[in-house]
Specification:
By secondary structure, this protein is an alpha+beta fold. The protein has 4 helices and 7 strands.
Length: about 170
């Protein structure tokens, strides 16, 4: 590919990731589903989550965990490192900062910092996210009265409790 084509493809992937953030935060689940391949794989295990296989299952999982209108979220991604690996595949790393209202009634909010490591696939002229792995550098839980830095140990223990309560 020539340099202009490479830059246009990278720009298309940047716009894809922007739609990912916008549709997720707007809770537009149908539009958000469209950014993923059908066989999408999400891996948040290093951030205290789990591996979810399949775009439909991932959207349902996320909607179940963050879908309430009172659970406001803000996802911002920065400093993309995108590499085309072929005319129809690419990989990228994005710095992430997200804000998630965990318990709206108590104004308990998570401020998270980390990275998305992703692969992309182009089909029918459109780029989609094929895999995404979330890693965390830091998480802070705050409300107007307190602030708590969440260690990896605390996050993993909390994730185990959430998984047990969901069973």
């Amino acid at each position: 590919m020539d340099d202009v084509t490479v830059l246009l493809e990278i720009e298309a992937i940047k716009q894809l990731k922007a739609r990912y953030c916008r549709h997720l935060d707007a809770k537009d689940w149908q539009a958000w589903r469209a950014v993923f391949t059908d066989d999408f794989v999400s891996d948040t295990s290093q951030a205290g989550g789990e591996v979810v296989i399949g775009a439909e299952k991932f959207v349902a999982f996320t909607r179940n965990n963050l879908g309430k209108a009172s659970q406001q979220t803000v996802h911002q991604v920065h400093a993309p490192e995108i590499e085309l690996t072929s005319a129809t595949t690419a990989r990228g790393i994005w710095a992430l900062q997200d804000v998630v209202r965990l318990v709206p009634a108590l104004s308990i909010t998570l401020y998270g910092y980390g990275h998305y490591r992703e692969t992309y696939e182009k089909s029918d002229g459109h780029w989609r996210i094929k895999t995404s792995k979330l890693t965390r550098l830091r998480e802070d839980i705050v409300n107007p009265v307190f602030s708590l830095r969440v260690s990896e140990r605390m996050r993993n223990a909390g994730a185990r409790l959430v998984r047990r309560s969901a069973e």
